[in-house]
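Open question from group meeting: does this chain pack into something compact, or does most of it stay loose? Before anyone orders reagents, we agreed to write out a predicted structure and look at it together. Recording both the input and the output here so the notebook holds the full record.
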Amino acid sequence: MNIKKILFAELLDKVEKPGRYTGKEYNEIIKKEDKSMIKVALVFPDLYEIGMSYLGFKILYEIINQREDALAERVFSPAVDMDKLLREQELPIFSLETYRSLNSFDLVGFTLQHELCFSNVLNLLELGQIPLRKEERKEKDPLVMAGGPAAFNPEPLSPFIDLFVIGEGVYVPSFYEVDYWADGRIKSITPREKEAPPLVRKRLITNLDQAPFPPFPLVPNLEVVHDRITLEIFRGCTRGCRFCQAGMIYRPVRERSVENLIKLAEEILAHTGYEEISLSSLSSTDYSQIEELITKLVDRFKEKGVGVSLPSLRIDAFSVSLAQQIQRVRKTGLTFAPEVGTQRLREVINKKVQEEDLYTSIQAALKGGWRRVKLYFMIGLPTETEEDIEGIVRLVNKVDQLGREVTGKKIGINISVSAFVPKAHTPFQWEAQEGIDVLEQKLNYLNKRLKRRNISFSYPDIERSYLEAVFARGDRRLGEVLEKAHYLGCKFDAWREQFKFRAWQEAFKESGLSMEFYAHRERRDEEIFPWEHISSGVKKEYLFEEKKKALRGEMTPDCRLASCNSCGVC
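Structure tokens returned:
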């Protein structure tokens, strides 16, 4: 059966946004197949618009296709309408480059950006006509691998994945045996094979100027979430926010040189035609030569009408001066992350900013011509009190007042609130997530207090945050839950309209496991974590000391600005 003919004749005219499935994008790579080539499917378990915005996916695409002995093609989660048609026609999910069925690749590699994509992994395996569990696969079936930030606790997906990429190292879950105490806690994790190390250490690229970066990035067929050039200026972060997993697992800081970044920007612009360059990192204003970089980028490309943007800004006057540099070409939005409403709680989470810095920065921005700001907050953090929640209201009111004082009218304020999710490899990996009822009460209170015409308020579905917390610190027994939830129709759990919380509750009940055990239970000091044998490079002893300092309200300085904190990664 010719998938390509059926695709165009019977499928594409029946689905919304057929551009998700056609391929043929500018800079697409289609290699002439040789029987000796390793055929790799790069699979992003979400919609095309999400996956095509992810830089890591494009980097892998270029790395593999530059090899003479391999080819890489892309597969994304089909939307619900295409999913239904594929099942009705009994057709496998296919790649965009050559419409090759997923089960005909040698390697199938999933990118795991977050835990709420896990159900989509199983859905894609099924759509690809690949047995879900690794022990059910035959010699003809592909080897299934996965990587990305959510792979730093790989255990919930371990029954379905042959190997995980941790940084640039490899973990094979079948090489390890896990034993449990009667109360469900982990008793031990031991290697089954002599070759398997007791601790799988993250490997990393030390020289970022020598790391591959795609000069010919794919230009999507339709509008995607981040439709612009993404220029990765550095990796890692040493600010040490205690809730932030990325800040721990991507250490140490490694920067690209200004000269290399300018060269990359010129190449990518010449090969794409984009009109915006986004400087990407965990905290772009921490790049050691950020002022020089922005000045050179703006000067070099302003005549072509190419703008530069920063995803978020530090709360200080320096950041606003950078934003003013950027607006010489095109005015972009300003996003600040106070995170919490009081200085006490900022010290708990190790957020090294003062509230007055926020007001000074916003005042400077308003005087510079901005009329809309976005503020990002988190609720449910350890030690949070009613006073901390009220502090968010007070802070937003102050920003609103500043707007009227500087501009003479109301400014637009976008508020984004998320719920704290304890993550592996962070100082807060021992902490419990707050209960659903408590978090919903806090959100309702904020929504009520901040409801006015010039303020938009976005917030999460707490039940989804709850499920994320379950899998963020889950063990390999959750594989059974995942499988049951899959057969109950769970997929696209990150999308509010697709999320089926009752089906997840039923899957846990049928498996005899408790969601509360994973999300709402504070871990013992000496507890063995499901990811105990996976090392991000940061020592567990360091993370535990940071947890104790948090409860004391004691801050840890940034090691790039002070002395080494002995986290272990260097």
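Observations to bring back to the group:
DSSP finds 19 helices and 19 strands in the chain.
The longest strand covers residues 372-379.
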